[in-house]
Amino acid sequence: MTSSEIPRISFDKSAVRDWAKTDPRHKNWPVVYLLDSAKPAATSTALRDVYVGETLNAEARILQHLDNPDKKRLLSQFRVVLDDRFNKSVCLDLESHLIRLLAGDGTFRVLNRNDGITDANYYERDVYRESFRQVFDQLLKEGVFSRSIPEIENSDLFKLSPYKALTTDQAVAVENIVEGLFDDLEHDRGELLVVQGEPGTGKTVIAIYLMKLLADIAASRPDDEPDADSIFSDFFTDGHRELLREFRVGLVVPQQSLRKSIKRVFKRTPGLAPSQVLTPFQVGASDERWDLLIVDEAHRLNQRANQPSGVQNKQFSDITVKLFGQDDYSKTQLDWIRALSRHQVLLVDPEQSVRPADLPPELLRNLVDEAKDESRHYPLVSQLRVRAGDDYIAWVRQLFSPQLSEGAMRTRPDFGDYELKLFDDLGEMHDAIRERDAQHGLARLVAGYAWEWKSKNDSDAHDIELDGRRLKWNTTATEWIASPNSLEEVGSIHTVQGYDLNYAGVIVGNDLRWDEEHGRLFVDRASYFDKKGKENNPTLGRTYTDDDLLRYICNVYAVLMTRGIRGTFVYVCDPSLKRRLKEV
Q: Looking at the structure, do residues 29 and 126 belong to the same domain, yes or no?
């Protein structure tokens, strides 16, 4: 394959026409092009803007962009990727490839809509994708990118970007949700929808994608060129735009760390704003209603329970009184959300509830059953995170099931080249994690909450001391995975839930043990140090038994065991449980 040419030309009509005369392919050949803005002054905090497209007639398409006043104002130059062997399929693939990488790099604000991102197969795709690396390298030299592809793909900006090629079940869910939403808006109905999926099926992807898609529909113009390749193109009409006029949308994210990461993405995404990413308390305290609230990790919403601070306890009471006229202890944060929004989309996995304060399992089951009965339930089944696939997720959930008994434990399936390894020495596992981080990035140690957090109040203290290795819990509660010291620390469930790793080194503490006499898992309550994870709920008159606690702790380890894309390393403290795991 010949190497691609990427000329750079001023974004004005005379320059475009002069350039078009130099080669007949500029008017009749499949190409990918980039429109971007000049580099801002060193003192400026503004992001540069970029738009990526593909066309069979570069001159006509770029002149068409010049008729758009917003693009003419924001953009100052264009680049065209020209290759003798390009065809329409290649250009669609390269266009999507560059949009995803640009959004993940963060140097530019990507002006594209997200409904046209594809990941389709075609003849000799692997060969063509090798040439994409040459295109990237040249653009990297010219300052279009600031980081390497592995660095980009390991970043939260990339992983949480709205520019994703959806799987079939994700696309079906999004299409049905948007179609149902517009139908409800036309008939003045309010509805609750449930998207359910196991770890790695892309629930957060759907939440962020939906936010961007609705923003793009609302902001679209009648003269925008429709994307015929998009299954969502029929939504970009005057009627749908009118239905979204002054439409107020919010994304509720219960976890602090994930919420902060998503805000960073929204800050760099046209049509979205960090202020749209909300805590449940921000929703409850608002005097305004939302037209739509999308709730990611909805299983982590709280029922009435002792909150992390006295201020939040008072807030819980005040919000409930404001919304319902009395301090009704039966009301949950989900009730706040339903009271303050016309439409709701909940993204849930009941098996990822990890604290007694989370929504009760019976409430989650009822929500799912009701959504199924009303055809408002959208299951996600395609495994996107863990390369070992669905068999690995099922095996982990069976392995860390409160109902697990000796007779029920099945032999480990074949996970192919997925690297699953049990270690006898924590230092060796930590060293292996360091090696994988050097090779692939995003390799981290994580653990159940089986050690007291001494270093929180004493910076000289260590929290986990095993086999001569001394480690601290995560020293930051937000965006820990990307923090400078994270490779030498241990992340808890509250810092990693919702995130991807390439390799996870999971430390299973003495909070979870194996009873050899009865052949079952059991909880060592004294070795579990998450105070909010085991405290009773006197407000609701609930006392949590060891069996209740076992369910939460098993869920914690199942979540930790499903973070690793390429592999999972495991160290088990309890000798009996370690022996049992070696047998499967």
A: yes
Tell the burial category of 286 from Cβ atoms under 10 Å away from its Cβ (0-12, 13-18, 19+). middle
**Residue 329 to residue 332: CA distance in whole angstroms:** 8
Q: For every residue of 358-402, which 3-state class applies, written as one string?
A: ECCHHHHHHHHHHHHHCCCEEEECCCCCCCCCHHHHHHHHHHCCC
Max CA distance (Å), the chain: 85
In terms of domains, do 407 and 436 share one?
yes
Statement to judge: residues 300 and 241 lie in one domain: yes
Q: What is the pLDDT of residues 514-529, one digit of tens each?
A: 999 888 999 999 999 9
Residue 137 shares a structural domain with residue 195 = no
Together in a domain, 283 and 309: yes
Nearest to 1 by CA among 129, 131, 125: 131
Tell me, what DSSP letter sits at residue 352?
Answer: G
Helices (H), 54-142: 58-66, 69-74, 88-105, 125-141
- Contact between 160 and 208 under an 8 Å Cβ cutoff? The reply is yes
CATH number at residue 502: 3.40.50
- The pLDDT tens digits of the residues spanning 76-111 come to 999 999 999 999 999 999 999 999 999 999 999 999
At 332, list the tokens.
Answer: 């949950």
- Cβ–Cβ < 8 Å for 106, 268: yes
Q: Kindly state whether residues 360 and 425 are assigned to the same domain.
A: no
